[in-house]
Amino acid sequence: MSQTVVLKVAMPCEGCVGAVKRVLGKMQGVESFDVDLKEQKVTVKGNVEPEAVLQTVSKTGKKTSFWGADEAETAKA
Question: Where do the HMA domain residues begin and end (predicted)?
């Protein structure tokens, strides 16, 4: 089943964007993705598990979390 996963990824430069694009391009099940450097946002569409996408992007060494997760943690406190 196709779904959309949105991540917040700390990407200070275009090189970081390239690293994220490389790992997503190799990931099985990914149909499309968009990397927004300005927003620090990565949107992935495809037959993928959200946790698997998070783990794959984390392999680039960039701080990665689900979009809105920081706000949810703050709201719980």
Answer: 2-65
**Which helix H or strand E contains 39, and what residues bound it?**
none
Residue with tokens 């060494």: 61
**pLDDT of 71:** 57
Lookup: tokens for 52: 């698997």
Residue 75 has a pLDDT of: 44
Give Dmax (Cα) for the chain: 38
Domains of the chain and any CATH numbers: 3-66 (3.30.70.100)
Q: Residues, the chain, total?
A: 77
Cα torsion angle, 57, 63, 69, 73, sign: positive
Q: What span, in angstroms and rounded, lies between the C-alpha atoms of 28 and 9?
A: 20
